[in-house]
Write a structure and sequence with these properties.
Elements: E1 3-7, H1 14-24, E2 30-33, E3 50-51, E4 65-70, E5 73-78, H2 90-98, E6 103-105, E7 113-117, E8 120-124, E9 139-144, E10 149-155, E11 167-170
Parallel strand pairs: 1-2, 2-3, 5-6, 6-8
Antiparallel strand pairs: 1-9, 4-5, 7-8, 9-10, 10-11
């Protein structure tokens, strides 16, 4: 089953980002950082991640958004600040649909959740630095099978699963 690691809003936490990367590199097919790493684009801790600029990232090498294909799924990645994700997910899901993305990954609000909107799965992995809405610092892993049965699981920095955030769903 393909697996994608999704992290956001690490806000300079290099040790923790390296720890997550080391823990999961051999267990996932792709790694995504949804912005606000506060690291230069070429810094070692962020290497290996498909990554975008957040409102706290000033290195001009970061793209504002990107589209990534992993196996049979297309991911649209943006931080979300330019799409006003704290107010509504409509602009970011519309932008993702322009790229025919089934999965939308964003950060900015620091609020961990996986939500289905139309034919898209929208994932905010939360923040490994300053979570909002709950106390746990979180990141997410999405996995799916050939029939597009998918699971989104959220994890704390210590590797424990945050079970009440998990979602099982059928991708379209």
């Amino acid at each position: 089953m393909p697996r994608v690691l999704i992290v956001s809003d690490s806000h300079g936490m290099t040790k923790e980002l390296e720890m997550i990367k080391t823990e999961h590199t051999d267990q996932v097919d792709h790694m995504i950082h949804c912005g606000d790493s506060e690291l230069p684009y070429a810094d070692e801790p962020i290497q290996g991640f498909s990554r975008v600029a957040g409102n706290c990232d000033y290195d001009p090498d970061y793209p504002d958004d990107l589209t990534v294909d992993v196996n049979d799924l297309r991911f649209f990645v943006a931080h979300g600040h330019m799409h006003h994700v704290k107010m509504t997910l409509d602009p970011i899901t519309y932008r993702a649909s322009e790229d025919n993305a089934q999965i939308v990954c964003h950060g900015h609000s620091h609020f961990a959740q996986a939500t289905e909107i139309g034919d898209q799965l929208v994932i905010n992995p939360g923040s490994i630095r300053m979570p909002r809405g709950r106390r746990e610092e979180t990141y997410a892993i999405l996995e799916w099978d050939d029939d597009k049965n998918a699971t989104v699981r959220f994890y704390r920095l210590n590797g424990d699963e945050v079970k009440d955030l998990a979602r099982d769903l059928k991708l379209r």
